[in-house]
Amino acid sequence: MILPKENRLSSDVYGLNALPHGTRNPAGDYRYGASNNVISISGDKHGSVIGTGRGTNFTDEQGENENTLRRGDCTTKGAIDNPEFGTIIRVRNTDRDIVHEFTKADNGSLPDAIIDIWKTGVEDLGLTWHSYTSFLGRYSYNF
């Protein structure tokens, strides 16, 4: 479902200005951040979202719905793209050409990232986990 700008949530309990779950901005390219991040939303009947730019990791133990976060979970920039929790998101580390599937389990403000991977999940992309890890990447899913 795509919601027009006037139907978006103004904020949520975390102040992220996230869209309602299962929604995204109208079709188009959304550019932001110092890393030239782009989230592209298609408007055709076989809709898809592709985010290209910087990926990061996060270490929160509990998600937006008080769910326990674990390896394999990820978060998207909820103000632009907020797929349903449980959506499978394909993430590619473009430097190493390694792809892994993660599960949407939280929302983030992501001021300079397209995707946030929970803690040690970045190891599934060929990276060494630290308290903060960053990589060039891409994410995608169909809706």
TrEMBL record:
Protein name, as recorded: Uncharacterized protein
Source organism of the structure: Paenibacillus ottowii
Organism ancestry: Bacteria, Bacillati, Bacillota, Bacilli, Bacillales
